[in-house]
Structures are given as C-alpha cells and as structure tokens.
Amino acid sequence: MAGHSKWANIQHRKGRQDAARSKLFSKLAKEITVAAKMGDPDPDKNPRLRMAVKEGKSQSLPKDVIDRAIKKAIGGDAENYDEIRYEGYGPNGVAVIVETMTDNKNRTASTVRSTFSKNGGNLGETGSVGFMFDRKGEVTYPLEVGDADSVMEAAIEAGAEDCETTEDGHRITCADTDLNEVSNALEAALGESESTKLIWQPNMTTELDLDGMQKLMKLVDALEDDDDVQRVTTNFEATDEVLAQL
C-alpha cells in the first residue's frame, strides 16, 4: 500500500483533519483564488478552477467561502502567489514532494528546509526525487456508486488508465492532461465524485516500520502546518499491522 492512497486514511483515523479544518479551508480557498486569477472566473470555462471548486466541496468547504475566494480574484485584491515544488528525503530515505503557494519565496524556502532538517530529513534539489513519482489525475468515488466491474467499465469508457476498488472506495487514475475530460465523462456516468485532483503517484516505494512511520508523520505534520504548503506527497509503504498501530 503506497503512501499516496493511504495518507488521508491515516489522517482521518488520527483526527487531524478535524483539528486542522480551518487551515485546510484556507489552503483550499487559496487554490480557488489562484485558479480563478490565472484563468476565467467561471468554473465551467476554467478546468483548474472547476477542479479546485470540486475539491473544496468534497472537503465541505462552505459555498460562501468558495464564492468569496473567486470574487477576491475578480476584484484584483488577491495576492500574487508563486507555485514552487520542493523535493527531499524524509526519515529512512522516504521521498517527499512539497507543493507550495507563496508570496515570499525566501521565507518559504527557509521554512521548508528548516522543517526537513529538524525532523530527520533533508531538502534536495528539484528533480532529486521527482523521478520516483508520475504526475496523474485522480478521481475517487464511494463504494455506493456501483460494484467494481461497473465502475471499471465507466472508467475505461471515460478514457482512464486504471481503476482500483478497495474497502475505502473506487480510485480512478488517468493521464494528468486528461483529468478534466475524464472527470466530466465519469460525472455523466456515475454522478458527482468525492474528489478530483492532480496527484504525484509513486512508481517506487520505501517500506517503513512503526518507528519510521511515526517519524515520517511528524515531518509531514510539520510541513502541512505551514500556511504556504498546499500538499505533501510521500512514497512510503507500510503493512496493515504497522498502520493499525499508528
């Protein structure tokens, strides 16, 4: 079980999502504002904004917060953010990708570097771990939308590359450039998705024991606590026994 598909479940079990809801909402709203500022403020005409709004809704971001984030971009009072990706290694050599949106590159670079070093990791150059991941589009649905075969058929018809069904739901992946088209086709066939977003999918993983997982979670929590950090992806792998002990 690779890190990209299990980290959210670990967070949920530990109750972190509820504790950090306001911080999560702030990051989702920032993504919506940036997407609206970069393109058309109408989600139907702006694929990135459409995905940002959909992801916000899937995380229960209130409609008034979504509307306010879009209006902020239209009004011209939105800050200018640079999107910067950092790459490095966490405890036990786990690959870590940190995606940020910042209005101060020096501040963010300093904070990210310090967070890595304080938590048993080290920040590398761009590309130092990127080869361990593939950029993909990901669409998720709850189990209730259909059985594995029917969802797989819908995914193939939509042009997806893969469909994985587990006890957590259906996870459909596609080429990153096809995400908007695939998600639209899936929505027509299966209804509104739980989540639609671009991800970094590990193509090689690093297995961790309980001690390694605890150290990695400490690093990821510290990174995600930074307001400039939008998302953190790792390539950890762990057994069900280890995950159950967290």
Could you provide a short overview of the structure?
With 246 residues, this protein is an alpha+beta fold. Helix content is 47%, strand content 23%.
What does the model show?
- By secondary structure, the chain is of the alpha+beta class.
- 47% of the residues lie in helices and 23% in strands.
- It is built from 10 helices and 10 strands.
- The strands form 3 sheets. It has a 4-stranded antiparallel beta sheet with strand order 3-1-2-9. A 4-stranded antiparallel beta sheet has the order 5-6-4-7.
- Strand 1 and strand 2 form a beta hairpin.
- The protein is globular, with a radius of gyration of 18 Å.
- The mean pLDDT is 88.
Share of residues in strands: 15-25%
Largest sheet: 4 strands, antiparallel
Low-confidence stretches: none
- What's the helix-strand series? HHHHHEEHEEHEEHEEHEEH
Number of helices: 10
**Rg from alpha-carbon coordinates:** 18 Å
Structural class: alpha+beta
Give the averaged pLDDT, no decimals: 88
Describe the strand arrangement of the main beta sheet, using strand numbers. Answer: 3-1-2-9
Basic shape: globular
Q: What is the percent of helical residues?
A: 40-55%
Number of strands: 10
Q: What gap, in angstroms, lies between the N and C termini?
A: 15 Å
Characteristic terms for this protein:
4-stranded antiparallel sheet; 47% helix; 246 residues; alpha+beta; globular
